[in-house]
Write a structure and sequence with these properties.
The complex is a heterodimer of chains A (458) and B (399). Chain A is α/β, with parallel strands linked by helices. Chain A is built from 15 helices and 17 strands. In chain A, β5 (93-99), α3 (105-118) and β6 (123-128) form a beta-alpha-beta unit. In chain B, the strands form 3 sheets. An 8-stranded parallel barrel of chain B has the order 1-2-3-4-9-10-11-13, surrounded by 8 helices. In chain B, strands 5-6 form a two-stranded antiparallel ribbon. The chains are: A alpha/beta (458), B alpha/beta (399). The interface between A and B is large, with 75 and 80 residues.
Chain lengths: 458, 399
Amino acid sequence: MSKPLKQIHLAAHFPGVNNTTVWSDPEAGSHIEFSSFAHFAKTAERAKFDFLFLAEGLRLREQGGKIYDLDVVGRPDTFTILAALAAVTEHLGLTGTINSTFNEPYEVARQFASLDHLSGGRSAWNVVTSWDAFTGENFRRGGFLPQQERYSRAKEFLATTQELFDSWQGDEILADQASGVFLRDAKAGSFVHTGQHFDIHGQFNVPRSPQGRPVIFQAGDSDEGREFAASSADAIFSRYATLKEGQAFYTDVKNRLAKYGRRQDQLLILPAASFALADTDAEAEELARTVRRQQVSGATALKHLEFVWNRDLSRYDPEGPLPDIDPDVSDNHISKGRAQVRMYRDPLATAREWRELAEANKWSIRDLVINTGNRQNFIGSPETIARTINEYVQADASDGFILVPHITPTGLDTFADKVVPLLQEQGVFRTDYEGPTLRHHLGLAHPDEARGEQRAAS
Amino acid sequence: MSPSSLHLAVALDGTGWHPASWREPVARPRELFTAGYWADLVVEAEHGQLDFVTIEDGLGPQSSHFLDPDERTDQVRGRLDAVLIASRIAPLTRHIGLVPTAVVTHTEPFHLSKAIATLDYVSTGRAGVRVQITARPNEAAHFGRRTIPAIEAYDSPRTQDLVTDLLDEAADWVEAVRRLWDSWEDDAEIRDAATGRFIDRDKLHYIDFEGRHFSVKGPSITPRPPQGQPLVTALGHQTVPYRLIARQADVGYITPHDTDQARAIVTEIRDEQSAAGREGEPLHIFGDLVVFLDEDPAAAAARRDRLDTLAGEPFTSDARVFTGTPAQLADLLVEFQATGLTGFRLRPAVLGHDLPAITRGLVPELQRRNAFRTAYEADTLRGLLGLARPANRYAAASA
């Protein structure tokens, strides 16, 4: 008997503060005005997507000691936008990236529990960590956290917020006007947490929210990040959207679940995926090339090369050959506030490889950056993209995708209108929401049910 | 608005300011943690063309004690984050200002500055913030970052030292937040395709704030909000907070119990304002009043008595408590206005009853006296309060 078809999960990443987002296109709108967020969210909900995803950055990026000015710069506050989006949508999940380093558990727990109440159970938290003193300069504690402790803090931060969410059971508020009993239990919300990073106690002041706790996302890719996800997350925002890499990541992470007593369906793998969609495959290929050139201007190409060379390359011609000098391998990096630079672990080797590639293909600096950088994950007609997405999901390269359009706020419209109906026809994507909460959309049990299951099993 | 007009805000807290308010049939206490409850209240306030609503908040359970938890089960306990309530309501309203409370004692000015800026974007120019300190040791323990000593008496010298220290921190907090709001010039986003530059980075500014409790480098991650500077408001009962109001706020709330007190406090704040070199700048001083409103004064008094009986003790407040008809309240507000108050923040004893009494009873009475607007005359909260959009401090410095 063949395996039953997996249902695909789809989400929409609001175009971000990076060069995937094409701001120079005449169609590109505001990245700040609420009308852009509302349009984007309503499109995602019209298409019955699982959720909308917001990234976060707590310090404007710098390169060579100056604020980086070539990408979209600036974004609103995550919680505040998600709360407002709850007013203009009814079902769409609302996922926010919130840093565990430059926040405190009591406050973050209040904000997520409040968002969950105000959205009727649609909140999710992408837990990220950072340690850099650069970002810390905007916060009370500065750069207080050694890099090797960031996951230990993140884990304890998440565990502490879970204790706060669980400090209310959900049946404490009686609000009996006749008898005058508002609270069943004067100790509702009581908590004590004593740990390496947090030593706090008292009473949490937000009653249990519809989902019990927000859905937890994790995005880190290191071994520690994967363990963190396997132990504590409901979903992973991954970066492996190709078939082979996706399958490898999927297998690796899902195999880690058993040791935490968790089933394979209790952790969803959702890679970020960009796309170039047109009426025909040929037109889509052409669109993909055009968009790549929009994403990588000459100025952007030079700045990108600086991530590897770690030197000021502004005197080079982006349409000319690669620099013949070698990268500066000192610790003090030219780029600040960007996770991407850590991908190049051996800059000398990368530089050598790129020079060889450029010579072999007669590529300029800009050609090289366009061709070695991230090409769109899905390129093609609606039929091609729908078929590919379904193949990848059925082949366990993922459980679905978090789509990253390159145009704000209309970049999702055509996907919603053309690709989603094809997936629905194939019976692999919902035609309507089946429940009110994000846990329903993702097929995740309510924490109370999950606890019940564990008790029954033990 | 005519020059004789006064401004009106309503303070939203739970089911109302009387601790037994939740037991009234109109109170909807089981809906306190839903968006619909708050939406209905703010839509009602907007129906009355009020200037703004404030939303109370706190970093711990409500308590009938000044500084400690009380473990009572007969009053409303638990609340949602006020900034998020305001943001959830913003798309459902068009004119009314939204002023959530932010507790500044344990929180990050960087986070709150972008949250209020974002509220200003979401509401297209109707955001403000009411800054509040907390001296509660139990709330400090929720953060575990510092110990706040338990203090015995409200007026002891130790208490005064602590409150002064917390208010100094609040002053730093407001300064950092205001700088962050200005850290992008209005025209910083250029989208210059020719040079590939999205922003003109010379129009972004480090704020380099350094205070005793925190430092903030900047710039904000959020561009300058629509109003430039969203409204900053604070409640004060004594000289130290009056100074914060005089130096840094757009609206101060005070609690005079009679017109003589009102006159004295207004004078004190205006003197501080002059001393701070702000005499030319508009600063609103609102009187806070708790209100029990009924068409028959005896009914209002009886309702108050009934609630006091349910609560098991007579209601007391830092603010003057008014019990009577909307017409009597209108007369009182006009009388208080003559002391130099420019508006009032009314705290409805029972929101489900006294808020509609304000919007449908008091407002028409004031309009009849030519003392309140008959239509919203501006698109922003600053506009409603007659406050110009301020110049950017950094643009002025570089010009």
